[in-house]
Protein backbone atom coordinates (compact mmCIF):
# COMPACT_ATOMS: atom_id res chain seq x y z
CA UNK A 1 0.00 0.00 0.00
CA UNK A 2 1.44 3.35 -1.05
CA UNK A 3 4.39 1.95 -2.99
CA UNK A 4 4.71 3.37 -6.51
CA UNK A 5 5.25 0.23 -8.62
CA UNK A 6 6.64 0.48 -12.16
CA UNK A 7 6.36 -3.20 -13.11
CA UNK A 8 6.24 -6.65 -11.56
CA UNK A 9 7.02 -10.21 -12.54
CA UNK A 10 6.33 -13.43 -10.72
CA UNK A 11 3.60 -14.32 -8.22
CA UNK A 12 2.78 -10.87 -6.78
CA UNK A 13 -0.54 -11.66 -5.05
CA UNK A 14 0.36 -15.13 -3.78
CA UNK A 15 3.74 -14.30 -2.27
CA UNK A 16 4.03 -14.55 1.49
CA UNK A 17 6.66 -12.44 3.25
CA UNK A 18 8.27 -13.65 6.46
CA UNK A 19 10.64 -10.74 7.06
CA UNK A 20 12.02 -7.65 5.31
CA UNK A 21 15.77 -7.45 4.76
CA UNK A 22 18.14 -4.90 3.23
CA UNK A 23 21.23 -7.11 3.59
CA UNK A 24 21.32 -10.07 1.20
CA UNK A 25 23.53 -12.11 3.55
CA UNK A 26 20.75 -12.04 6.18
CA UNK A 27 18.09 -13.40 3.81
CA UNK A 28 16.26 -16.56 4.82
CA UNK A 29 13.47 -18.51 3.11
CA UNK A 30 10.41 -16.37 2.44
CA UNK A 31 12.07 -12.98 3.07
CA UNK A 32 11.72 -9.80 1.04
CA UNK A 33 14.99 -8.24 -0.13
CA UNK A 34 15.04 -4.48 -0.76
CA UNK A 35 17.97 -3.79 -3.07
CA UNK A 36 19.18 -0.30 -2.22
CA UNK A 37 22.30 1.54 -3.27
CA UNK A 38 24.55 2.51 -0.36
CA UNK A 39 27.64 4.70 -0.18
CA UNK A 40 29.97 1.79 -1.02
CA UNK A 41 27.72 -0.82 -2.65
CA UNK A 42 24.71 -1.28 -4.92
CA UNK A 43 22.06 -3.65 -3.62
CA UNK A 44 21.12 -4.73 -7.12
CA UNK A 45 24.49 -6.48 -7.34
CA UNK A 46 23.34 -8.81 -4.55
CA UNK A 47 19.96 -9.83 -5.94
CA UNK A 48 21.31 -13.19 -7.14
CA UNK A 49 22.69 -13.94 -3.66
CA UNK A 50 19.36 -12.98 -2.07
CA UNK A 51 17.52 -15.36 -4.41
CA UNK A 52 19.96 -18.17 -3.64
CA UNK A 53 19.44 -17.55 0.08
CA UNK A 54 15.69 -18.03 -0.31
CA UNK A 55 14.18 -14.60 -0.94
CA UNK A 56 10.55 -14.81 -2.07
CA UNK A 57 10.33 -11.16 -3.16
CA UNK A 58 12.84 -8.66 -4.57
CA UNK A 59 12.20 -4.90 -4.57
CA UNK A 60 14.50 -2.94 -6.83
CA UNK A 61 14.90 0.32 -8.69
CA UNK A 62 16.17 0.94 -12.21
CA UNK A 63 15.07 0.72 -15.78
CA UNK A 64 14.74 -2.33 -17.97
CA UNK A 65 14.06 -5.92 -17.14
CA UNK A 66 15.74 -7.60 -14.20
CA UNK A 67 18.42 -9.92 -15.57
CA UNK A 68 17.59 -12.54 -12.94
CA UNK A 69 14.47 -14.69 -13.01
CA UNK A 70 13.55 -17.45 -10.61
CA UNK A 71 10.49 -19.61 -10.22
CA UNK A 72 8.33 -18.61 -7.27
CA UNK A 73 10.15 -15.29 -6.74
CA UNK A 74 8.26 -12.03 -7.16
CA UNK A 75 10.23 -9.11 -8.62
CA UNK A 76 8.92 -5.59 -7.99
CA UNK A 77 10.43 -2.60 -9.76
CA UNK A 78 9.78 0.81 -8.18
CA UNK A 79 10.63 4.35 -9.20
CA UNK A 80 12.32 5.21 -5.89
CA UNK A 81 13.55 2.29 -3.82
CA UNK A 82 14.38 4.36 -0.72
CA UNK A 83 10.91 5.85 -0.61
CA UNK A 84 9.47 2.39 -1.19
CA UNK A 85 11.56 1.04 1.69
CA UNK A 86 10.13 3.64 4.09
CA UNK A 87 6.56 2.93 2.96
CA UNK A 88 7.05 -0.83 3.26
CA UNK A 89 8.31 -0.53 6.84
CA UNK A 90 5.47 1.83 7.69
CA UNK A 91 3.00 -0.72 6.33
CA UNK A 92 4.77 -3.51 8.22
CA UNK A 93 4.18 -1.71 11.53
CA UNK A 94 0.62 -0.70 10.71
CA UNK A 95 1.29 2.89 9.65
CA UNK A 96 1.83 4.23 13.19
CA UNK A 97 2.62 7.73 11.93
CA UNK A 98 -1.07 8.16 11.06
CA UNK A 99 -2.09 7.83 14.70
CA UNK A 100 0.47 10.23 16.17
CA UNK A 101 1.09 13.97 16.19
CA UNK A 102 4.56 14.42 14.71
CA UNK A 103 6.88 17.37 15.29
CA UNK A 104 10.01 17.32 13.14
CA UNK A 105 13.04 19.52 13.83
CA UNK A 106 15.75 20.15 11.25
CA UNK A 107 18.71 22.51 11.09
CA UNK A 108 22.48 22.48 11.33
CA UNK A 109 22.52 23.21 15.05
CA UNK A 110 19.94 23.13 17.82
CA UNK A 111 17.86 20.09 16.78
CA UNK A 112 18.63 18.07 19.88
CA UNK A 113 17.96 20.91 22.32
CA UNK A 114 14.67 21.95 20.70
CA UNK A 115 13.46 18.34 20.78
CA UNK A 116 14.51 17.99 24.42
CA UNK A 117 12.73 21.23 25.31
CA UNK A 118 9.50 20.16 23.63
CA UNK A 119 9.55 16.75 25.30
CA UNK A 120 10.31 18.37 28.67
CA UNK A 121 7.32 20.69 28.30
CA UNK A 122 4.99 17.80 27.42
CA UNK A 123 6.34 15.73 30.32
CA UNK A 124 5.90 18.69 32.68
CA UNK A 125 2.27 18.95 31.61
CA UNK A 126 1.69 15.23 32.18
CA UNK A 127 1.37 14.33 28.51
CA UNK A 128 3.32 11.40 27.08
CA UNK A 129 5.69 12.45 24.32
CA UNK A 130 8.14 10.19 22.52
CA UNK A 131 11.50 11.47 21.31
CA UNK A 132 13.82 10.30 18.55
CA UNK A 133 17.21 11.92 18.18
CA UNK A 134 20.94 12.15 18.68
CA UNK A 135 21.11 11.69 22.44
CA UNK A 136 18.51 8.94 22.69
CA UNK A 137 15.07 7.55 21.92
CA UNK A 138 12.25 6.86 24.33
CA UNK A 139 9.33 8.04 26.48
CA UNK A 140 9.49 9.62 29.93
CA UNK A 141 12.70 8.76 31.76
CA UNK A 142 13.21 5.59 29.73
CA UNK A 143 15.66 6.94 27.15
CA UNK A 144 17.79 4.48 25.20
CA UNK A 145 21.08 5.79 23.69
CA UNK A 146 21.04 6.21 19.93
CA UNK A 147 23.83 5.99 17.36
CA UNK A 148 21.92 7.88 14.66
CA UNK A 149 20.19 11.26 14.55
CA UNK A 150 17.31 9.84 12.51
CA UNK A 151 17.09 6.04 12.41
CA UNK A 152 16.64 3.97 9.26
CA UNK A 153 12.97 3.19 8.40
CA UNK A 154 13.15 -0.26 9.96
CA UNK A 155 13.94 1.22 13.39
CA UNK A 156 12.08 4.50 12.94
CA UNK A 157 8.64 2.99 12.33
CA UNK A 158 9.22 0.36 15.00
CA UNK A 159 9.83 3.17 17.48
CA UNK A 160 6.69 5.02 16.39
CA UNK A 161 4.59 1.89 16.89
CA UNK A 162 6.21 1.26 20.28
CA UNK A 163 5.42 4.81 21.41
CA UNK A 164 1.85 4.53 20.15
CA UNK A 165 1.32 1.33 22.13
CA UNK A 166 2.76 3.00 25.22
CA UNK A 167 0.11 5.70 25.03
CA UNK A 168 2.04 8.57 23.48
CA UNK A 169 0.00 10.93 21.31
CA UNK A 170 2.95 13.10 20.22
CA UNK A 171 6.46 12.31 18.99
CA UNK A 172 9.17 14.92 18.49
CA UNK A 173 12.11 13.94 16.34
CA UNK A 174 15.30 15.21 14.79
CA UNK A 175 15.07 15.15 10.99
CA UNK A 176 18.62 15.03 9.62
CA UNK A 177 19.50 16.14 6.11
CA UNK A 178 20.68 12.57 5.40
CA UNK A 179 17.34 11.09 6.44
CA UNK A 180 15.34 13.63 4.43
CA UNK A 181 17.43 13.17 1.30
CA UNK A 182 17.20 9.39 1.64
CA UNK A 183 13.38 9.52 2.01
CA UNK A 184 13.39 7.77 5.40
CA UNK A 185 10.51 9.95 6.57
CA UNK A 186 8.56 10.07 3.29
CA UNK A 187 5.33 8.43 4.61
CA UNK A 188 5.03 11.00 7.43
CA UNK A 189 2.82 14.06 7.54
CA UNK A 190 4.12 16.35 10.27
CA UNK A 191 1.87 18.55 12.34
CA UNK A 192 4.81 20.94 12.72
CA UNK A 193 8.15 21.20 10.93
CA UNK A 194 10.75 23.37 12.68
CA UNK A 195 13.82 25.01 11.13
CA UNK A 196 16.45 26.06 13.68
CA UNK A 197 19.15 27.40 11.33
CA UNK A 198 21.20 26.40 8.31
CA UNK A 199 24.94 26.85 8.03
CA UNK A 200 27.37 24.63 6.12
CA UNK A 201 27.73 20.98 7.15
CA UNK A 202 27.82 17.43 5.80
CA UNK A 203 29.26 18.49 2.44
CA UNK A 204 31.03 15.13 2.34
CA UNK A 205 27.56 13.66 1.74
CA UNK A 206 25.66 16.46 0.01
CA UNK A 207 28.62 17.83 -2.02
CA UNK A 208 26.98 21.28 -2.32
CA UNK A 209 25.28 23.61 0.13
CA UNK A 210 22.38 23.86 -2.31
CA UNK A 211 21.73 20.13 -2.01
CA UNK A 212 22.09 20.36 1.78
CA UNK A 213 19.44 23.10 1.99
CA UNK A 214 17.20 21.37 -0.55
CA UNK A 215 17.28 18.17 1.51
CA UNK A 216 16.23 20.00 4.66
CA UNK A 217 13.41 21.70 2.75
CA UNK A 218 11.79 18.30 2.22
CA UNK A 219 10.53 18.45 5.83
CA UNK A 220 8.46 21.54 5.04
CA UNK A 221 6.80 19.94 2.03
CA UNK A 222 5.51 17.31 4.48
CA UNK A 223 4.41 19.69 7.26
CA UNK A 224 1.00 21.22 7.98
CA UNK A 225 2.69 24.15 9.78
CA UNK A 226 6.29 25.27 9.29
CA UNK A 227 7.89 27.13 12.19
CA UNK A 228 10.95 28.92 10.88
CA UNK A 229 13.83 30.94 12.28
CA UNK A 230 13.20 34.23 10.51
CA UNK A 231 16.67 35.53 11.43
CA UNK A 232 18.44 32.76 9.52
CA UNK A 233 19.77 33.77 6.06
CA UNK A 234 18.25 30.68 4.44
CA UNK A 235 14.69 31.41 5.50
CA UNK A 236 13.66 32.94 2.15
CA UNK A 237 14.82 29.84 0.28
CA UNK A 238 12.89 27.60 2.66
CA UNK A 239 9.75 29.74 2.46
CA UNK A 240 9.57 29.13 -1.28
CA UNK A 241 9.35 25.36 -0.68
CA UNK A 242 6.58 25.41 1.93
CA UNK A 243 3.23 23.89 1.05
CA UNK A 244 1.32 24.48 4.29
CA UNK A 245 1.09 27.37 6.74
CA UNK A 246 4.25 29.12 7.88
CA UNK A 247 5.03 30.97 11.10
CA UNK A 248 8.17 33.05 11.52
CA UNK A 249 10.08 33.26 14.80
CA UNK A 250 12.41 36.23 15.24
CA UNK A 251 14.52 38.14 17.71
CA UNK A 252 15.97 40.76 15.38
CA UNK A 253 13.11 41.57 13.03
CA UNK A 254 9.47 41.09 12.22
CA UNK A 255 7.83 37.74 12.82
CA UNK A 256 4.70 35.97 13.95
CA UNK A 257 6.53 34.94 17.13
CA UNK A 258 8.94 37.37 18.82
CA UNK A 259 10.83 37.63 22.08
CA UNK A 260 12.01 40.82 23.76
CA UNK A 261 14.01 42.09 26.73
CA UNK A 262 16.68 39.39 26.65
CA UNK A 263 19.01 39.28 29.65
CA UNK A 264 22.17 37.19 29.43
CA UNK A 265 23.12 35.64 32.78
CA UNK A 266 26.20 33.80 31.52
CA UNK A 267 26.37 30.10 32.36
CA UNK A 268 23.31 30.56 34.60
CA UNK A 269 21.14 31.03 31.51
CA UNK A 270 18.98 33.90 30.29
CA UNK A 271 15.66 35.65 30.75
CA UNK A 272 13.33 37.02 28.10
CA UNK A 273 9.74 38.02 27.41
CA UNK A 274 7.61 35.80 25.19
CA UNK A 275 4.42 37.65 24.27
CA UNK A 276 4.45 39.36 27.65
CA UNK A 277 5.30 36.18 29.58
CA UNK A 278 8.59 36.14 31.48
CA UNK A 279 10.72 33.09 30.66
CA UNK A 280 13.64 32.18 32.91
CA UNK A 281 15.78 29.70 31.03
CA UNK A 282 18.63 27.95 32.88
CA UNK A 283 20.46 27.21 29.60
CA UNK A 284 23.13 29.64 28.41
CA UNK A 285 23.45 31.41 25.10
CA UNK A 286 21.40 33.42 22.62
CA UNK A 287 20.97 30.28 20.51
CA UNK A 288 19.08 28.69 23.42
CA UNK A 289 16.74 31.70 23.43
CA UNK A 290 15.97 30.84 19.80
CA UNK A 291 15.56 27.17 20.73
CA UNK A 292 13.20 28.01 23.59
CA UNK A 293 11.18 30.42 21.45
CA UNK A 294 10.54 27.71 18.85
CA UNK A 295 9.80 25.09 21.52
CA UNK A 296 7.23 27.33 23.21
CA UNK A 297 5.66 28.29 19.88
CA UNK A 298 5.35 24.69 18.74
CA UNK A 299 3.78 23.64 22.05
CA UNK A 300 1.32 26.54 21.74
CA UNK A 301 0.28 25.15 18.36
CA UNK A 302 -0.21 21.76 20.03
CA UNK A 303 -2.46 23.29 22.69
CA UNK A 304 -0.05 23.94 25.58
CA UNK A 305 -0.13 27.54 26.83
CA UNK A 306 2.99 29.67 26.73
CA UNK A 307 2.67 30.18 30.50
CA UNK A 308 2.85 26.41 31.11
CA UNK A 309 5.81 26.13 28.75
CA UNK A 310 7.59 28.97 30.57
CA UNK A 311 7.03 27.22 33.89
CA UNK A 312 8.38 23.99 32.45
CA UNK A 313 11.50 25.61 31.01
CA UNK A 314 12.42 27.15 34.36
CA UNK A 315 13.39 23.63 35.46
CA UNK A 316 14.79 22.53 32.10
CA UNK A 317 17.82 20.27 32.75
CA UNK A 318 21.04 20.71 30.85
CA UNK A 319 21.12 18.74 27.62
CA UNK A 320 24.08 16.39 27.76
CA UNK A 321 27.01 17.71 25.76
CA UNK A 322 25.30 21.00 24.89
CA UNK A 323 27.05 23.82 26.79
CA UNK A 324 27.33 21.36 29.67
CA UNK A 325 29.14 22.88 32.62
CA UNK A 326 30.76 20.01 34.48
CA UNK A 327 29.93 19.86 38.16
CA UNK A 328 30.48 17.17 40.80
CA UNK A 329 34.14 16.95 39.84
CA UNK A 330 35.07 15.40 43.15
CA UNK A 331 37.25 18.38 44.05
CA UNK A 332 36.88 22.13 44.10
CA UNK A 333 38.67 23.81 41.20
CA UNK A 334 39.11 27.54 40.51
CA UNK A 335 38.09 27.30 36.83
CA UNK A 336 35.14 26.04 34.77
CA UNK A 337 35.05 23.04 32.42
CA UNK A 338 32.49 23.04 29.60
CA UNK A 339 31.70 20.19 27.21
CA UNK A 340 29.91 21.00 23.96
CA UNK A 341 29.08 19.05 20.79
CA UNK A 342 30.18 21.96 18.57
CA UNK A 343 31.53 20.35 15.40
CA UNK A 344 30.70 23.04 12.86
CA UNK A 345 32.25 26.53 12.51
CA UNK A 346 28.99 28.25 13.49
CA UNK A 347 28.45 26.08 16.57
CA UNK A 348 32.06 26.49 17.70
CA UNK A 349 31.87 30.27 17.39
CA UNK A 350 28.59 30.37 19.33
CA UNK A 351 29.86 28.33 22.27
CA UNK A 352 33.14 30.27 22.36
CA UNK A 353 31.21 33.54 22.57
CA UNK A 354 29.25 32.19 25.54
CA UNK A 355 32.47 31.12 27.25
CA UNK A 356 34.07 34.48 26.52
CA UNK A 357 31.14 36.35 28.03
CA UNK A 358 31.02 34.16 31.15
CA UNK A 359 34.74 33.84 31.81
CA UNK A 360 36.57 35.93 34.38
CA UNK A 361 39.86 34.76 32.93
CA UNK A 362 41.05 33.08 29.75
CA UNK A 363 39.43 30.69 27.28
CA UNK A 364 41.31 27.41 26.71
CA UNK A 365 39.82 25.38 23.87
CA UNK A 366 40.46 21.73 23.07
CA UNK A 367 39.05 20.57 19.72
CA UNK A 368 39.62 18.47 16.63
CA UNK A 369 37.64 17.57 13.51
CA UNK A 370 36.07 14.27 12.51
CA UNK A 371 37.55 12.04 9.84
CA UNK A 372 35.65 10.93 6.73
CA UNK A 373 33.45 14.01 7.09
CA UNK A 374 33.16 17.48 5.57
CA UNK A 375 36.75 18.68 5.10
CA UNK A 376 35.81 22.25 4.17
CA UNK A 377 35.09 23.23 7.78
CA UNK A 378 38.46 22.21 9.25
CA UNK A 379 40.46 25.35 8.49
CA UNK A 380 37.45 27.53 9.33
CA UNK A 381 37.20 25.95 12.79
CA UNK A 382 40.94 26.45 13.29
CA UNK A 383 40.56 30.13 12.43
CA UNK A 384 37.59 30.62 14.78
CA UNK A 385 39.13 28.76 17.72
CA UNK A 386 42.46 30.59 17.49
CA UNK A 387 40.80 33.99 17.04
CA UNK A 388 38.52 33.76 20.10
CA UNK A 389 40.50 31.48 22.43
CA UNK A 390 43.46 32.57 24.52
CA UNK A 391 44.97 29.10 24.14
CA UNK A 392 43.94 26.54 21.54
CA UNK A 393 44.85 22.87 21.90
CA UNK A 394 44.36 21.08 18.57
CA UNK A 395 43.83 17.35 18.86
CA UNK A 396 41.94 14.34 17.45
CA UNK A 397 38.19 13.76 17.30
CA UNK A 398 36.81 10.55 15.75
CA UNK A 399 39.45 10.34 13.03
CA UNK A 400 37.77 7.19 11.64
CA UNK A 401 39.76 5.90 8.65
CA UNK A 402 41.78 9.11 8.18
CA UNK A 403 45.22 9.86 9.56
CA UNK A 404 44.63 12.18 12.54
CA UNK A 405 47.83 14.08 11.77
CA UNK A 406 46.50 14.82 8.28
CA UNK A 407 43.28 16.21 9.75
CA UNK A 408 45.24 18.39 12.17
CA UNK A 409 47.34 19.78 9.29
CA UNK A 410 44.15 20.91 7.56
CA UNK A 411 42.93 22.59 10.77
CA UNK A 412 46.27 24.38 11.08
CA UNK A 413 45.78 26.02 7.66
CA UNK A 414 43.24 28.31 9.27
CA UNK A 415 44.94 28.90 12.63
CA UNK A 416 46.18 32.41 13.35
CA UNK A 417 49.92 31.88 13.60
CA UNK A 418 50.20 34.84 15.99
CA UNK A 419 47.80 33.19 18.42
CA UNK A 420 48.83 30.89 21.25
CA UNK A 421 48.20 27.30 20.21
CA UNK A 422 49.66 23.83 20.50
CA UNK A 423 49.13 20.45 18.85
CA UNK A 424 48.63 17.32 20.95
CA UNK A 425 47.19 14.51 18.78
CA UNK A 426 46.29 12.25 21.74
CA UNK A 427 42.96 13.67 22.95
CA UNK A 428 43.38 12.47 26.52
CA UNK A 429 46.78 14.13 26.80
CA UNK A 430 45.35 17.28 25.18
CA UNK A 431 42.60 17.46 27.81
CA UNK A 432 45.08 16.97 30.64
CA UNK A 433 47.34 19.67 29.20
CA UNK A 434 44.44 22.14 29.06
CA UNK A 435 43.37 21.34 32.62
CA UNK A 436 46.92 21.78 33.89
CA UNK A 437 47.19 25.12 32.09
CA UNK A 438 43.95 26.49 33.56
CA UNK A 439 44.12 29.15 36.26
CA UNK A 440 41.64 31.05 38.44
CA UNK A 441 38.60 32.24 36.48
CA UNK A 442 39.50 30.43 33.24
CA UNK A 443 37.07 28.40 31.13
CA UNK A 444 38.27 25.14 29.58
CA UNK A 445 36.11 24.22 26.58
CA UNK A 446 36.16 20.65 25.29
CA UNK A 447 34.48 20.93 21.90
CA UNK A 448 33.34 18.31 19.41
CA UNK A 449 32.39 15.15 21.24
CA UNK A 450 29.57 16.45 23.41
CA UNK A 451 27.31 13.59 24.53
CA UNK A 452 29.46 10.88 22.92
CA UNK A 453 30.96 8.21 25.16
CA UNK A 454 33.17 6.66 22.49
CA UNK A 455 36.05 7.37 20.15
CA UNK A 456 36.28 6.14 16.55
CA UNK A 457 39.63 5.64 14.83
CA UNK A 458 41.12 3.30 12.23
CA UNK A 459 41.11 0.46 14.79
CA UNK A 460 37.37 0.80 15.36
CA UNK A 461 35.18 2.10 18.19
CA UNK A 462 36.35 2.19 21.79
CA UNK A 463 34.72 3.52 24.99
CA UNK A 464 35.86 7.06 25.70
CA UNK A 465 34.45 9.48 28.29
CA UNK A 466 35.74 13.03 28.47
CA UNK A 467 33.83 13.49 31.73
CA UNK A 468 35.68 10.62 33.39
CA UNK A 469 39.03 11.86 32.10
CA UNK A 470 38.38 15.33 33.52
CA UNK A 471 37.21 14.06 36.91
CA UNK A 472 40.02 11.54 37.35
CA UNK A 473 42.73 14.01 36.34
CA UNK A 474 41.45 16.80 38.56
CA UNK A 475 40.97 14.52 41.55
CA UNK A 476 44.54 13.23 41.17
CA UNK A 477 45.97 16.70 40.58
CA UNK A 478 44.24 18.52 43.42
CA UNK A 479 44.59 15.63 45.85
CA UNK A 480 48.36 15.79 45.33
CA UNK A 481 48.38 19.58 45.69
CA UNK A 482 46.35 19.55 48.93
Explain the overall architecture.
- It is a single chain.
- The protein is an alpha/beta fold and 482 residues long.
- It folds into 3 domains: 5-91, MurE/MurF, N-terminal domain (Udp-n-acetylmuramoylalanyl-d-glutamate--2,6- Diaminopimelate Ligase, Chain: A, domain 1), CATH 3.40.1390.10; 94-313, UDP-N-acetylmuramoyl-L-alanine:D-glutamate ligase (3-Layer(aba) Sandwich), CATH 3.40.1190; 324-481, Protein-Tyrosine Phosphatase, Chain A (Alpha-Beta Complex).
- It is 33% helix and 23% strand.
- The chain has 15 helices and 24 strands.
- The chain has helices at residues 47-52, 81-92, 111-124, 153-165, 177-181, 203-206, 209-221, 235-239, 286-301, 306-313, 345-358, 378-388, 404-412, 427-437, 466-481, and strands at residues 5-9, 20-21, 32-34, 57-61, 74-78, 101-106, 129-132, 137-139, 142-144, 170-174, 190-195, 223-229, 245-250, 257-264, 270-274, 277-281, 324-325, 336-340, 363-367, 391-394, 421-423, 443-447, 454-457, 460-463.
- The strands form 4 sheets. It has an 11-stranded mixed beta sheet with strand order 9-8-7-10-6-11-12-13-14-15-16, sandwiched between helices. A 6-stranded mixed beta sheet has the order 17-18-22-19-20-21, sandwiched between helices.
- Helix 2 packs parallel to helix 4 (153-165) and helix 11 (345-358) runs parallel beside helix 12 (378-388).
- The longest helix is centred in the middle third of the chain and has 16 residues, at 286-301.
- The radius of gyration is 24 Å and the shape is globular.
Amino acid sequence: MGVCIVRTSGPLTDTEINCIRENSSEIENGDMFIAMAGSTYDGTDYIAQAVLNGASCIVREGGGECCIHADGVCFIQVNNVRRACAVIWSNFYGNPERYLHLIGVTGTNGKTTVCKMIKHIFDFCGEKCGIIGTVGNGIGDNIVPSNMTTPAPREFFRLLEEYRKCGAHTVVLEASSHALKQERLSPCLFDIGILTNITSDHLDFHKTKEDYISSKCKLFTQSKISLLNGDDPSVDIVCRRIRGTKRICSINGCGDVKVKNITDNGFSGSEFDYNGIKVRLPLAGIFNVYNAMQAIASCEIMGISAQKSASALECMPCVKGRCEVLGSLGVSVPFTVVIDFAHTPDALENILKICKGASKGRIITVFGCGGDRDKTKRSAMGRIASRISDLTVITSDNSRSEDPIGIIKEILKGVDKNSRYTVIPDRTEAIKYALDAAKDGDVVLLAGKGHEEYEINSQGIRPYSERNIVREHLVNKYAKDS
